[in-house]
Amino acid sequence: MAGRIRQSDIEELKSRLNIADIVSDHVSLKSAGVGSLKGLCPFHDERSPSLHVRPGVGYYHCFGCGESGDVYSFVQKMDHLSFTETIERLAERIGFTLHYEEGGASDVEKGSRVRILAANQAAERYFIEQLGSTEAATGRAFLGERGFDKAAAGTFGIGYAPKGWNGLRDFLRSKGFTDDELQASGLVSAGDKGVYDRFRGRLIWPIRDVTGQTIGFGARKLYDDDKGPKYLNTPETPVYHKSQVLYGLDLAKRDISKSRQVVVVEGYTDVMAAHLSGVTTAVATCGTAFGVDHIKVIRRIMGDDSGLGSVIFTFDPDAAGQKAALRAFSEEQRFAAQTFVAVAPEGLDPCDLRLGRGEQAVRDLINNKVPMFEFVIRQVVSRYDLDTVEGRVAALREAAPIVADIRDASLKPGYTRELARITGVDVLEAQAAVARGGARPTSPTQTRTPGPADTTPTALDAGPQPVTLANDPATRMERDAVMAMLQMPADVGAELLAEAAQSFMANPSLAVIRDAIGANQHDFAQNSWIESVSADVPENLRALVMQLAVAPLPERSEKEMTVYARAIVVALVERDVVRRKSDLMSRMQRLDPAATDESREIQRELMDLETKRRRLRDE
Question: Is 80 in a helix, a strand, or coil?
């Protein structure tokens, strides 16, 4: 019978652990006041962070779902471990020696999950050692042909599985692992004559979880007589669930959290090429399509609650790549971050791009990303013959709902004009199609995940919620500008109203109302002006529209109110001009000195913006 861990060791171990360090392996934490941290809860899906961690007292609590506890309960729930397995794992993490009562527990007697992880660790060492063997020359050549040297192989822990049937099996048996444990780990397969190595004659990539523990392997075939698939991965085990695993996340997590950027590539060598080229936020799925569970992992690591991050997908331009892009797009609104697509020239993946054109080309691939919406719109439109009326109408009909469903309302006017341009229809016709577009179609079992405009932690489960605006200066200015546009559109003036309707607003609720104002700007003189705007916003924002429409403006006299209404709307537009100038200047700084045409175009845009800014100030 296995001995019990001494209670004094359990208490001492807890005193040496920082719960924030453990939680931050899974969640991006940020300050929530003195002695408190917060992040997106890993135990339920949410848009706003409700998990609070207090390192000083060693506890966490989620105000959204109610999960709470100490460092032990967090690891138990996250990794589905027994209490004993949790203690042993955390002790190993910091090199703390445990003592057992009743004579102690042998490795064989420890929990099966811990044994699987130990077997994987031993297998990884075996594979790495085998990469230096004479037989592995083909594997080393494979890496060298793709631009990966010995140092790169060491960084990513690449190894080699010999061609024989029992090399790994016998090695692990010699380390005290049983055949049952090896089968549970997925390292061997069972046949009529017993168990044999699952991976044979292949290059091996260790697949690690977010904490850096090896939970499985990916194996690439090297020989023509290997009749198996090109890539063979560890099967589902108690520690390896491919729908939740992202290769490279252990190396990328800190930079993902710091930069709020993640780059999703398609394979192990692409991750390697990206990291070695300086794109240290690259990850890849492991033998499965990018899905909801992957999104949940990324959102927690990014701290994806502000909408300021970016998720960049790299896809091949062929039919399979386009299909993958559309599949990713179907889940795009699960992110608060902006989503982008990066397609390399001539269909090169990051590995081939680095090999053929150098590491700068990989960085340029990511820097030249295009918004996911733009990419998908072009993919949809490309299916139709735009030389015919029927083709243009069909393309507009299919693409308009995509534009209508763009979360960031400030982007809709621009995408509407772009849709009109690429389909060859009138802008007003495109605006009408987008207005009719509604939400992106969903399957009968798929529900739309609310965007970052949701204001409560339970927004994923609740119906429309009342909206309360923040009281920071930026939100107050945006709120006052919307009030002026709603209450005094004639005094604001048609031209200024149109410019304001396309200006950036950080508050998502006000941005939606601003977009509705833009959609109805030609009717501002009608008695039904407020009703028209209200009809074009979601139900949960209609009460806010009415509040802003009747709330008192600061100035009392009619003259003061007219001056104020224009001034606050001018301030909104001028702020947007400054923001756009800053974006252009940043873009100019990143330009290749040889890109003279693009440089001249940016300079022209900057001059136009400066002219606009001066005109606004002179009015």
Answer: coil
- Residue 287's contacts (CB-CB under 8 Å, 6 or more residues apart) are 218, 231, 233, 242
Q: Could you tell me the CA-to-CA distances from 410 to 403, 499, 502, 527, 584 in Å, in that order?
A: 12, 11, 6, 26, 18
Handedness of CA 518, 522, 524, 530 (dihedral sign): negative
256 phi, psi to nearest 5 deg: -60, -45
CA angle at 536 for the pair 439 and 573, rounded to the nearest 5°: 105
Please state, as a whole number, how many other Cβ atoms lie within 10 Å of the Cβ of residue 142: 17
Question: Which amino acid, residue 3?
Answer: G
Single-letter residue type at 586 = S
Query: Architecture of domain 246-368 in CATH?
Result: 3-Layer(aba) Sandwich (3.40)
Report residue 201 as tokens.
Answer: 């004659």
pLDDT in tens, 349-367: 899 999 999 999 999 999 9
**251: confidence class by pLDDT, cuts 50, 70, 90:** very high
Q: What is the CATH number of domain 111-240?
A: 3.90.980.10
Instruction: State the pairing for strand pair 194-197/188-191.
Output: antiparallel
Q: What is the pTM assigned to this prediction?
A: 0.60
Average pLDDT over residues 574-601: 75
Asked if 342 contacts 312 with a C-beta cutoff of 8 angstroms, the reply is yes
Q: Distance of alpha carbon 454 from its chain centroid, rounded?
A: 18
Contact yes or no for 234/241 (Cβ under 8 A): no
- CA dihedral sign, ordered 408, 414, 418, 419: positive
Q: What CATH code would you report for 377-437?
A: 1.20.50
Q: Of 43, 65, 181, 50, whose CA–CA distance to 115 is shortest?
A: 181
> Residue 216: which residues within 8 A CB-CB, separation 6 or more?
120, 186, 206, 207, 233, 234, 237, 239, 240, 245, 286
Residue located via tokens 């297998």: 123
* Assigned CATH topology for domain 7-108: DNA Primase; Chain A (3.90.580)
CA distance 195 to 601: 66
Neighbours of 558 (CB within 10 A): 9
Q: What is the three-class DSSP state of 247?
A: strand
Handedness of CA 328, 321, 264, 283 (dihedral sign): positive
Residue with tokens 């295009």: 370
Closest CA to 74 of 269, 236, 252, 300: 300
